[in-house]
């Protein structure tokens, strides 16, 4: 459903992605693993239309999305949940969630938005108890849940998640990854960027390792875990 084909990207003269290819099939959670600076966030930026690639193309459901504006990529069904969550702290949880469905609100589809809100809250019941609270007063884990729930309000068929477990206590991280595992059953595939390789692979059908802007390895979680490259990607060469 998502095909990234031979994508290259540079910040000025500094290459950040070199002919990166990967795919996500319907019903899959796929992890993209690598250290700081490997190019993971840059790749998500290219897929979501925030960054223009220098070469290659991205297609989603057989339609080219590279070159589209970010809002058109969202309308095509691909939503990114950014690293650091980027919530509006002074706004309430409810208002943050409603921002995720601006397309439907603009079309005055209030009933649909109410249904989406219900679905999002069913995945993260703790948010239902905090709807009128300012988002900035939530715990780190709750803020991550809110960022994901906001992304789901746009009814994506593919969610791009940038380090959802970053900085969270292991128990909270596990809870969030548990929701990620269940998203395909709700009709939403996932491309999961993580430094937490073990956690990510435990909820994924496949994974890729990226270092220095290149995909070095791909395979099942078992294959990736058994690979010397995984150790190298995270600890550097022996
Ligand atoms: P992290 O988890 O730290 O975000 P990452 O794997 O997502 O790591 P990227 O953020 O994609 O990595 O960065 C890839 C490379 O591009 C790095 O060398 C980084 O320094 C560089 N880079 C990222 N953003 C910019 C920018 N806005 N301007 C210049 N160089 C950048």
Task: Characterize the biggest β-sheet.
Answer: 6 strands, mixed
Strand content: 25-35%
How do the strands line up in the largest sheet? 6-7-8-3-9-10
Q: Report the bound ligands by name, code or SMILES.
A: adenosine-5'-triphosphate
Helix fraction? 25-40%
Average pLDDT figure: 92
- Cα separation of the termini: 37 Å
Short description:
The longest helix has 14 residues, at about 110-125. Helix content is about 40%, strand content about 25%.
What characteristics describe this protein?
238 residues; alpha/beta; six-stranded mixed β-sheet; four-stranded antiparallel β-sheet; 11 helices; 10 strands; globular; binds adenosine-5'-triphosphate; ATP-binding; P-loop_NTPase; amino-acid transport; ATP binding; ATP hydrolysis activity
What features would you describe in this structure?
The protein has 238 residues and is of the alpha/beta class. The chain contains eleven helices and ten strands. The protein has helices at residues 40-47, 70-76, 93-99, 102-106, 110-123, 125-128, 140-152, 170-182, 197-202, 221-226, 228-235, and strands spanning 2-11, 14-24, 29-33, 55-60, 63-64, 78-81, 158-162, 189-194, 206-211, 214-219. The chain has a six-stranded mixed sheet with strand order 6-7-8-3-9-10, sandwiched between helices. A four-stranded antiparallel sheet has the order 2-1-4-5, covered by helices on one side. β7 (158-162), α8 (170-182) and β8 (189-194) form a beta-alpha-beta unit. The longest helix is centred in the middle third of the chain and has 14 residues, at 110-123. It is globular. The mean pLDDT is 92. Bound molecules: adenosine-5'-triphosphate. Adenosine-5'-triphosphate binds at residues 11, 14, 16, 34, 36-42. InterPro entries: AAA+_ATPase, ABC_transporter-like_ATP-bd, ABC_transporter-like_CS, BCAA_Transport_ATP-bd_LivF, P-loop_NTPase. Pfam families: ABC_tran. GO terms for molecular function: ATP binding; ATP hydrolysis activity; branched-chain amino acid transmembrane transporter activity.
